[in-house]
Amino acid sequence: MREAAEAEERAFYAERATPEWLDTLAPLGTDDQKPHLTEAPWVVVLFRQSYGLRENGKKQTHYYAQESCGIAAGLFIAAVHTMGLVTLTHTPSPMAFLSELLERPANEKAMLVMPVGYPAADASVPDIARKPLESISVWK
Question: What is the pTM of this model?
Answer without folding.
Answer: 0.85
